[in-house]
Design a protein that fits this description.
The complex is a heterodimer of chains A (111) and B (115). Chain A is mainly β. Chain A contains no helices and eleven strands. In chain B, the strands form two sheets. In chain B, strands 2, 4, 5, 6, 9, 10 and 11 form a seven-stranded mixed β-sheet that branches. In chain B, strands 1-3-8-7 form a four-stranded antiparallel β-sheet, with no helix packed on it. Chain B is globular and about 40 Å long. Chain B starts with a strand and ends with a strand. The chains are: A mainly beta (111), B mainly beta (115).
């Protein structure tokens, strides 16, 4: 079956440093979505990428979708303590808009 | 507008007991999904539904059953709970595919412990 892997599993940065998480799918995706989850919370949608090579920005967050539509990345510039949480990518394939979630990257930011 | 509501929020069961988790959405969404999330892992799809009266298996369906008798409700049943089913369960809904670029809307989750 389809697999979506994310690296790293965990990253600890000091406030102001940059952070990147990478997502790789075993199959070509229709689109890829990114979610953020705080401890004890539910996944919160951040963005969806659809086109090959697409790049989208949301303030300090930059999202990229690979040319082959099998990989993606999320880059945060100048992290803040409010960025703490686990970031998941989720790839959509097939019918019914089913998502396969990545394993997640837990980000810890300290002052 | 409540969005996606899951009940109960917490539950402790003994091995072999049965229970039903309820997911209700008030957005008239066609698609609904049940996921489980184990510690330190991503969400895995258990079952899903593309409309009233339809259900289909996801990635990890064994030990679970679902029903979608009404469009707004999606029920997840555990007939004989096992400790391996201890997890956080999330429900999500989505408008039909015609409304492109819409994300799945998640409920707050149900924390289920099986002793």
């Amino acid at each position: 079956g389809q697999q979506v892997m994310q690296i790293p599993q965990y990253q600890h940065v000091q406030e102001g440093e940059d952070f990147t998480t990478y997502c790789n799918s075993s199959t070509t995706l229709s689109n890829i979505q990114w979610y953020k989850q705080r401890p004890g919370g539910h996944p919160v949608f951040l963005i969806q990428l659809v086109k090959s090579g697409e790049v989208k920005k949301q303030k300090r967050l930059t999202f990229q979708f690979g040319e082959a539509k099998k990989n993606s990345s999320l880059h945060i510039t100048a992290t803040q303590t409010t960025d703490v949480g686990t970031y998941f990518c989720a790839g959509e394939t097939g019918t019914a808009s089913k998502l396969t979630f990545g394993t997640g990257t837990r980000l810890q930011v300290t002052l | 507008n409540a969005g996606v509501t899951q009940t109960p929020k917490f539950r402790v069961l003994k091995t072999g007991q049965s229970m039903t988790l309820l997911c209700a959405q008030d957005m008239n969404h066609e698609y609904m999904y049940w996921y489980r999330q184990d510690p330190g892992m991503g969400l895995r799809l258990i079952h899903y539904s593309v409309g009233e009266g339809t259900t289909a298996k996801g990635e990890v369906p064994d030990g679970y059953n679902v029903s979608r008798l009404k469009k707004q409700n999606f029920l997840l049943g555990l007939e004989s709970a096992a400790p391996s089913q201890t997890s956080v369960y999330f429900c999500a809904s989505l408008p039909d595919r015609a409304q492109y670029d819409q994300p799945q809307h998640f409920g707050d989750g149900t924390r289920l412990s099986i002793l």
